Amino acid sequence: MRAKRVIFCFLLSGACIAAVSETAAQDTIRQIDIQKGQVYLNLPVSESNPLTRMRISDGDKLLDQFTLKLTDSKPDYWVFFDVSRHQGKTLSVAVSHENIPMSGAFSNLTQASNKNTAISSAQRSKALQMVFAADHFPGEDSVYAEQKRPQAHYSARRGWINDPNGLIYYNHEYHLFYQHNPYGWAWGNMHWGHATSQDLIHWKEQPEAIYPFGEKDAAFSGSAVYDPLNTAGFRKNGIDPLIAVYTSTGRGECLKLSYDNGITFEEYEGNPILKHQGRDPKVFWYEPGKHWVMVVWDFGMTKKMSTGDDAIMNQQVIYTSPDLKNWTYQSGVEGFFECPELFELPVEGEAGETRWVMYDATGRYVLGDFDGKRFTVTQTFRQYDYGGGYFYASQTFNNTPDNRRIQQGWGRGLIHAGMPFNQPMLFPTELRLKKSFDGLRLCPSPISEITRLHQNSQVLENRMIRLDNGVSLNVHSDAVHVIAEFEKGDATTFGISVHGYELSYDHLLGEFLAMHGETNGKTNYVNPDSETFKIEAIIDKNILEVFVNDGELYYVLPFDKVKNNQVDAFIKGRGNDRKALLKKLEVHELVSIWSGRNRD
Question: Which of 247, 236, 223, 231 is nearest to 170 (CA)?
C-alpha cells in the first residue's frame, strides 16, 4: 500500500517541487514544470558513484525509466532527457532508493570504475534537487570540441553508443539510428539514438527516437524500411511512415511508425509481430517475389547430434511477409551470431553477374544465391575485418538513391576515457564484390564524399624510394586521410607511416603488417597478380581504419599513442640498391565534420 503523499511548492528556477514518500517503491518524487523554450531536463552524473534508478512521467504515462550514476556533488558531466515535446507540462521525476548491485544491474554492465559501494537516500534526494530544466545543458558550449572527440566520425553528444540501427535514406535524408545509453558513459539503458545527414558525412543529432517499452525492456537492434506500396496499410494523410523493425527485449520483434521523419514514433498495436529466441531483425523488400524479407539471428532451434542429443543452432533465419505484420518461417543458415545482413551485389568486371552476401556482427560473410526464401551458399565463410574485433555490428543503408551499398559499423572498444561520450561510428564505406586471387572478396572503401573534408592536401608522384631515400611530409591535424600507391620493384618491404603508425607489406613473405611501437599485427596476404600495391588509411583521434588494395584487406585499430605529425613512405630490407616506386602519395588533413555545429 502506498504511503500518504505530501506536496509543497516554492520558487526554484520556475519549478514546482513535490516531495513524496512511497514506502513500497522507496522513491522520492519531484515535480518539475517545463516552461516554454526549455528543451533539456538536466541530470548530474559522477562516474565514481553507483547506479541510481530514475523514472520520468507525465501524469500516469511513463516517459522513460533508466539507471545512471547520479551525484549530489560536483558532476563529472551532465546528461539530459529531451523535454521539447513536453513544454507547458509538469513532469514527475522519481529516484529510487534501492541499491543496485553492479553484478545484477541490467544497465552499465561494462563500467568497472565504481569506488563508492553505496549512496545514501539523503544524497539521492539532494541530487534530485540539482535536476533542472533549461534551454541548454551544461557543457553544451564545448560539445564536438572536446579533447578526445573524433572529428571525422560520428559520436553522440552524451553517452555510450554501439550498433548502428535503422540505416535508411528516407524523405531526402540519410537516417542513422543507433544503440544509445543517453544517461551514461557505459553500456546500458538501450534506446535508439538518431542522427540525420544530407551527405553521410555531416550529421545532426536528433532527439531520442525509440525508448524502452517498460521496466524490463530495452530497445535492441533492428532496421528501418519505407513502404511506398502501402502493403502494411500504414499510410496516413498521404504519408508513408518511416517504419522501424526492432527487438523489444521483453516482447519480441516489434514495429514502430514515424510520420514526422523519425522524430517521434508510434507503437504498432499488433506488437510483437514475431516471437522467437533471438534478435536484431534486418528487413527489406524483395522485388522479384513482391514480399518483405526478414533475416534475424536465432538460437531457439535445435538439430540432432549423432548421439541423439539436441544441439542449439546459431543461425540467420529467414522469414517472409506480404505486409510487415504477418511473418512465415522459410529457412536458416547456420554458423552466425547477432546483427545479420543480407543483400545483393554485382561482381565487378563481370557484366550481369551478382552474388548475395550474408554476414553477422563480426563481418564474417558467405556468398550465395537467394530466391527470396532460401539462401544457398556458393562460397563459404571469409574474414572481413583483420583488426581484432574493433569493427562490429555494421549495417547497410536501405533505399539509397544511387543504389550504392553503403555500410556503417560501430568502433567497438575504441573508448573515450574521461569524456561524457563513448564509442564512435566508423567511417561510412561503399561495398564492392571483387574477384581476387582466392575467390570473391567483399571490399569496403571510404565513400567518395570524404573528399568534402579534404584540406591542406599534399600530393607527390613518381618518387623512387630507397633505404636511404624515403619521403616525409608534415601534417598539422589529428585527422588525416592518406592514400599511397606503390610499384613493388625489388624492395622486400615497403609502406607508409602515418603519425608514427607503420603500415607495410612484406613482399617476400606475403605479409601485411600494422605496427605502432611494440604493438604489431601480421596478416598473411599473397598479392601475386599485380605489381602495384595500394594502402589507404583514415586516422582520427584514437581511430585507425586501413584499406589495402581498395578493401581486399580491411582493419579497424585503436590509435592510443602519441602522434608524430608526419606521413612517411619507406622501404626496408637488405641491400642499398633495393627500391620501390611511390607512384602516388596523397595526404589530406580532414576538416571537422562538426565545424560550426556545437550549438546546432
Answer: 223
